[in-house]
Write a structure and sequence with these properties.
alpha/beta, 9 helices, about 25% helix
Length: about 375
């Protein structure tokens, strides 16, 4: 960063989305003293890498929510963005409020099932209580089925089995390999071995055909799940870790010509939305060929803000270049496996780097606040 910037009264950056990329952008704009507004549907940042542990460990959820107001003060606004008026450079909120921008950073992330994602406005206290309620339901259920064996699904199954080793935990996945397709085969095999060691039952290469007939995240005796291979599984609780998709609802109407097939925004090497110099897309909603991860979103946020600053100073813009894949899978607080700069790493490194506390301390530090005990 190159210090503060003197700007005229017409400069105002709006950030839509307060995830990892959004808060990184907000903090950097603050350091540049560029006027900005951060808009999010929640009143607190959610450290969602900790969401799965918050679903099984009482008291952990409060560590994963950090007030936006305490960090961003009057620069934060809670609300749901429903449209972008490009002609007049306005962001339109569900409440009818209009927020004008000179530059726009879209950081809307992805949407999916709870735990982990919220699709409607929610207060921090209510969000924490949703997790505490889920913990109680997990505790009540003796047979838990996790549907989906991507990164979230394997971590969810491991968290449950770590805290409740006597529960029957079954993981159903439509593919044979587990976790992210971009991980090394040895890492994906390591995930499988850890789950089996913990006692998770794996039903791989099978698709649940009646998922619409069960209520997820609720305790109900003798729920029946059917698969396309003819398997019948009885559960007391079903947790869905499927269906993550780009959250394009805020911008899809305004950017029809810039949408990729998955709903992400097509961007150039500077992370500007194609053909629109003053609009940037970062994180999950940027169509960049790399895994959708918090780490990458933070890097995107820094590049976008540096480029806004450089454009104001008439300096050349920075290019974002995807690097080697780094992904650490926490398999409960006492185990894990992952990939660091393209290389396989094992339990010791992953436990020390991530599994013990899921990096919640890092988000509290980023937000300039003190974590609760």
């Amino acid at each position: 960063m190159g210090g503060t910037i003197s700007v005229d009264e017409n400069i105002h950056v709006v950030i839509v989305g307060g995830g990892f990329g959004g808060i990184a952008a907000g903090k950097q704009l603050k350091s540049y003293r560029i006027p900005y507004t951060l808009i999010d549907i929640k009143d607190a940042f959610h450290h969602n890498p900790g969401a799965l542990r918050a679903a099984v460990e009482s008291g952990f959820a409060k560590k994963t929510f950090i007030s936006f107001k305490e960090t961003f003060a009057e620069n934060f606004k809670q609300g749901k963005v429903i449209d972008i008026d490009l002609e007049n450079q306005n962001v339109v909120l569900e409440s009818g409020e209009i927020v004008h921008f000179s530059h726009l950073i879209l950081a809307t992330g992805s949407s999916g099932p709870f735990p982990g994602k919220f699709t409607e406005p929610v207060a921090m206290a209510n969000a924490i209580q949703m997790y505490e309620d889920l913990v109680k339901k997990v505790q009540e259920a003796q047979r838990v089925v996790v549907v989906g064996g991507g990164s979230a699904g394997v971590e969810m199954a491991a968290e449950i089995k770590t805290d409740y080793p006597d529960k029957e935990v079954i993981l159903i996945h439509s593919k044979i390999p587990l976790a992210d397709v971009q991980l090394l085969p040895s890492v994906r095999q390591g995930v499988k071995e850890i789950l089996l060691k913990k006692g998770v039952q794996l039903q791989l290469g099978q698709h649940v055909t009646n998922l619409q007939d069960v209520v997820p995240n609720e305790t109900q005796n003798d729920m029946k799940l059917l698969t396309d291979k003819g398997l019948e599984i009885i559960a007391d609780m079903v947790i869905c870790c499927t269906g993550i998709r780009i959250n394009s609802s805020a911008y899809s109407n305004a950017f029809k010509d810039q949408l990729a097939e998955n709903g992400a925004l097509k961007v150039n090497e500077h992370l500007q939305v194609n053909g629109i110099e003053n609009v940037y897309a970062i994180g999950d909603c940027a169509d960049v060929k790399e895994p959708k991860m918090a780490y990458h979103a933070v890097l995107h946020g820094a590049v976008a803000v540096d480029n806004i600053a450089n454009s104001l100073r008439k300096k050349p813009l920075k290019a974002y270049k995807p690097g080697s894949l780094t992904m650490l899978l926490s398999m409960g607080r006492n185990d894990g496996v992952g990939q660091l700069y393209g290389y396989h790493v094992g339990k010791l490194i992953v436990v020390l780097a991530k599994s013990r506390d899921l990096l919640v301390w890092k988000s509290w530090r980023e937000m300039g606040q003190t974590a609760p005990c």
